[in-house]
Amino acid sequence: MSFLEYAPAPESTAILNLKDSYGLFINGDFVPGHGTPFETISPATEKRIATIANANEKDVDAAVAAARRAYEKTWSKLSGADRGKYLFRIARLVQERARELAVAESLDNGKPIKESRDVDIPLVAAWFFYYAGWADKLDYAGLGAAPRALGVAAQVIPWNFPLLMLAWKIAPALAAGNTVVLKPAETTPLSALLFAEILQQAELPAGVVNIITGAGDTGQALVQHPDVNKVAFTGSTSVGRAIAKSTAGSGKKLTLELGGKAANIVFDDAPIDQAIEGIVNGIFFNQGHVCCAGSRLLVQENIHDEVVDRLKQRLSTLRLGDPLDKNTDIGAINSREQLDRIRELSDIGEAEGAERWTAECAIPENGFWFAPTIFDNVSTSSRIAREEVFGPVLSVLSFRTPAEAIAKANNTPYGLSAGIWSDKGSKILAVADQLKAGVIWANTFNRFDPASPFGGYKESGYGREGGRHGLAAYLKTGIDA
Ligand code: NAP
Ligand code: MG
User: Catalytic annotation on 291?
Assistant: First the structure.
């Protein structure tokens, strides 16, 4: 128990002006869906937030038709500078309504308000500002002369960073001149619907962005729709694989951002205090619901005991609870299904012989929670070392030499990200050069910037989001033509 207790500091929900039910956002208006509506709940209380329309095939058709019309009649007729003006306007409105968006995100998703307020929403605005700047400079993006838009983009996103994933998808698509139909995840539709209101406020021409809510079936109908030119998906490897199969030979351009099992490598010459913070940020940020999370700690054998002890001390100070409390470090797990999966994989880890340690903390009565957990002495063949837990669970492995660290880090079907902690720049560069991972952080972890491309190798998917590379996914360039 800590000696100085914190008084509750809840962020008020009074700033939210939510409707009791939300329709689908098609052609600039909210319209009823033809599927059976569903409820979105707060995972911290299991209380209903709002009723959400469910798009069936007919609605998907209407949304794609609206996007097609908008592409042909308005969006493709605008200059890049004019498209940029809309994107700048959206970015500014996101900033103006930042507090409201942060509260809505924490309520619907369960993530701590300090993360949605200080990380998610500022990055959403940054993504729109960044791509707004590219809209009139596509000829200078290094993608060949006069790159052209693809047409209608179908975008499907997961629940872990609902509004940020929306921004990663919509900002480059619009900057490049495409129109969009986007489906948010079933458990986190709220911030996308508030974003639709922002689009109305920004007077974005009708149909340029359509947001349709629903579950996996809606996503499937959208990506399989014959009139879309581009599919962008972020989510699990299994669904990504199914989408790759179903779009093969259709002529649709495809990008997949899938899972990960990142190694966070700590050498014995690392600044240990910073490394401890980096390990915590790497795996306990957003309850570990992060595709690029540093879920495998590879620590050099001679500092293993010290690092694990200090990590346990640090984790004992993390506060788990109300996502809307400004002191909360660990919020709620997004859904009961995800909680069940984390529990199942953790039990398997224990059964396979790893040593389980869990931070002591009071678990609220309602809602979905999982206390920060470490598995020590994990073998490379163990399922918790190979599969994505997507929760606040760290697997600790050790190594003796840089060569062994590299071999263990690359021993995974994934390849999204990695971290290296060392005092020696030359060692960092030499190791980074041999890691098969799309993003490598040195003496930091989980840092994002719109100018920096993000994406994976192997089962982590293909294509890049962010930076100029992110534009390429939404353009027909000389090479494709
Ligand atoms: P998921 O089941 O793959 O869902 C992702 C999205 O796809 C959701 O909107 C989902 O709808 C929809 N969907 C489900 N089945 C579909 C189908 N057959 N066709 C088209 N769309 C379909 O993944 P999740 O469990 O929500 O998210 C966790 C996973 O996403 C993790 O594995 C994580 O690593 C990965 N992820 C990767 C990145 C990255 O950038 N690489 C980022 C975030 C998450 P419903 O939610 O409504 O079912
Ligand atoms: Mg929810």
Answer: yes
- Spatial separation of the C-alpha atoms in residues 155 and 170, rounded to whole Å: 8
Confidence of residue 480 (pLDDT cuts 50, 70, 90): low
Residues near 182 by Cβ (< 8 Å), separated by ≥ 6?
A: 155, 156, 157, 166, 169, 170, 192, 209, 210, 211, 212
Q: Does the C-beta of 239 come closer than 6 Å to ligand 1?
A: yes
Q: What is the pLDDT of residues 170-189, one digit of tens each?
A: 999 999 999 999 999 999 99
Q: What does DSSP assign to residue 255?
A: E
Q: What is 223-239 written as a DSSP string?
A: HH-TT-SEEEEES-HHH
Nearest to 424 by CA among 299, 271, 282: 271
Cβ 438 vs Cβ 457: under 8 Å: yes
Q: Does ligand 1 lie within 6 Å of residue 220's CB atom?
A: yes
Separation CA 61–CA 165 (nearest Å): 23
Distance of CA 32 to the CA centre of its chain: 28
Ligand 1: does its nearest atom lie under 6 Å from the Cβ of 444?
Answer: no
Q: Is 109 in the pocket of ligand 1 (CB under 6 A)?
A: no
Q: Best substitution site from 239, 287, 458 to test ligand 1's pocket, by max atoms within 8 Å of Cβ?
A: 239
The best mutation among 188, 234, 342, 386 to test binding of ligand 1, ranked by most ligand atoms within 8 Å of the C-beta, falls on 234
292 is a catalytic site residue = no
- Please report, rounded to a whole number, the percentage of residues in the chain having pLDDT higher than 70: 99
DSSP label of 73: H
Q: What are phi and psi of 238, to 5 degrees?
A: -65, -45
Q: Please write the tens of the pLDDT for every residue from 286-300.
A: 999 999 999 999 999
Distance (Å, whole) CA 128 – CA 121: 11
Cβ-Cβ contacts under 8 Å for 340 (sequence gap 6 or more): none
pLDDT for 359: 95
pLDDT bin (cut points 50, 70, 90) of residue 3 is: low
Q: Please tell me which residue in 115, 291, 387, 459 is annotated as part of the active site.
A: 291
Residue with token string 């629903």: 214
Confidence category of residue 470, pLDDT binned at 50, 70, 90: very high
For 395, the token pair is 């697997």
| Average pLDDT taken over every residue of the chain | 96
Calculate mean pLDDT across residues 212-229: 98
Nearest alpha carbon, ligand 1 atom 19: 220
